[in-house]
Amino acid sequence: MTETVTMLPEDKYNKALVDAVHPADWENPTADGVYDMISIGAGAAGLITALGARAIGKKVAIIERKLLGGDCLNVGCVPSKGMIRAAHAAANVRDAGEFGVNVEGYSVDFGAAMERMRRLRSSIAPHDSADRFQNMGIDIYLGDGTFTSRNTIKVGGQTLKFKNCLLYTSDAAD
Fold first, then answer.
1. Average pLDDT of the residues of the chain
2. Roughly what angle, to the nearest 10 degrees, separates helices 12-21 and 110-124?
3. Do residues 154 and 145 lie in contact, with contact meaning Cβ atoms separated by under 8 Å?
């Protein structure tokens, strides 16, 4: 079992997101043998690198302490683009009179814009999900990794052996 992660507000969209990218019932695999590559961090770079290594037949693992998808899916690219699109829509309505379109009394519902963003983000989450990557043959370990030697790392009470380890971490979501 992994540490429980939540996102606020705890609505159906954030629940679906977390269920995909940090499932509460996730059980880390049992370490077996030596990994050709371990990616610490499951943002865009870590996920793509792991997929590439797996595609050429390498034994791969990902260690993620928070949410797969990293900053891009969870707090950066996807949420910001959703909000930017809402702002553009509001600006188009505000400026519609310039084009002969009369819009009186419009208002912006920030809560509804945020809900739309969460809905869209949760619909993208399955592409970065723990299940998807596990089904592609990549071992997913949720938890903190601690190096124990130059070729070993401990996560969730297990020691993983590796040939190569790549760090893709950020504290932006902290």
1. 94
2. 30
3. yes
